[in-house]
Amino acid sequence: MDEPESQEIAQEVPAENVFIAPSIHQNDILAGISYTHCTPIPNVIKADLSIECVLGVDEAGRGPVLGPMVYGLLYLPLSQHTSLLAHTHHFDDSKVLKPQTRSNLMQAICTPGTDLYQNCGWATRVMSARDIASGMLKPAGGYNLNAQAMDATIELIKDVFAQGVNVKEIYIDTIGKAEVYQKKLERVFPTTMITVAEKADSIYPCVSAASVCAKVTRDAALEVSHQAYSSADASANGSKVVGADAWGTGYPSSAKTVNWLKGHMDPFFGWGNECRMSWGTAKDMLEAKGNGIKVEWPDNNDDEQARRMTDFYITASAMELDEEPEDELATWYGKPVAASAF
Fold first, then answer.
1. 69 - beta bridge partners?
2. How deeply is 314 buried, as exposed, middle or buried, from its count of CB atoms within 10 A (0-12, 13-18, 19+)?
3. Structure confidence by residue, pLDDT tens digits, 11-67
């Protein structure tokens, strides 16, 4: 897994009063369920579905051990791409924007009557920490993070096409090699111009806006996830409820994050749905001497215990004579008889 840059980690800290967007489904977040939120087609596009649109996709929260990874998508009329997003509202990579700035931008996207609300449609795919870890820990190679990210991206774009939006151009921040990723997407969406590039969230305004949707949704999801712990801690210690900043950025390099993991680890279950159990930080902490309870599961497929299907069959003659069962395959079609029998 690629290590995040120091600037990315610094900007991971959420705003003090992060905007709770409609993409926050509290019950699903607390239950560790992955889900998709997709807005209706904006009025400007709905009035004329032949309008050519541009669409951007980006993610937030790829590297943290805590919280979901969120994929964000935003589309708008191609004619409004640069003027509305870059010139009027100054969208940029969410890691560059200050936490309160990106929260305010997300609120503007979600507020009826604003130019962003009238022109922009958006969607998010919240990939829970539980589901990410479950996929990666599957046997026979697992369902790696790149594959999960690719599937989330494709499904988000398909949902927009299914609504009848005339998407002509798609811009995506890459995972892995850009040319490989782009070829895969071109096979899925052959009639659309697709550009996959590194740092696309700093180059293409629609990707910048998508990164804001993803980041603010993740910030709010962390706040929701932390409420269950902060309320319990406050009741136990008689202190006030604290925000999600109590567990830091969620990155393994954050001292607050590591301290929180140590202080809230159950020796048998580890942590709740907010933790990616497949991350080395969590696995090492559980496996450290004296921390976790070791469980050994019996292997029913051990070679010494392996049985053939035919081991469960006993021939009638053996049952009648109370003898050791013979090899029934040798007599499957009957026993040979002497010529005198005819």
1. 127
2. middle
3. 556 667 889 999 999 999 999 999 999 999 999 999 999 999 999 999 999 999 999
Q: What is the pLDDT of residues 279-326, one digit of tens each?
A: 988 988 888 866 778 777 776 665 555 556 555 555 555 444 455 555
Residues 201-212: what's their mean pLDDT? Answer: 96
Residue ranges of alpha helices (H) inside the chain are 6-10, 26-31, 43-46, 99-110, 115-119, 129-136, 145-162, 178-188, 200-203, 205-237, 255-263, 280-287, 316-321
Residue appearing with tokens 């924007």: 97
pTM of the full structure = 0.81
Q: What are phi and psi of 313, to 5 degrees?
A: -100, 140
User: What's the token pair of residue 276?
Assistant: 């990616």
Tokens 């979600």 correspond to 110
Intra-chain end-to-end CA distance of the chain, in Å? 77
Neighbours of 31 (CB within 10 A): 12
Q: Exposure of 198 by Cβ count < 10 A (0-12 exposed, 13-18 middle, 19+ buried)?
A: exposed
Selection from 177, 168, 74 nearest residue 123 by Cα: 74
Bridge partners of residue 257, in order along the sequence: none
**249 and 263 in contact (C-beta within 8 Å)?**
no
User: Cα–Cα distances in Å, from 258 out to 12, 36, 250, 275, 313?
Assistant: 15, 30, 9, 12, 57
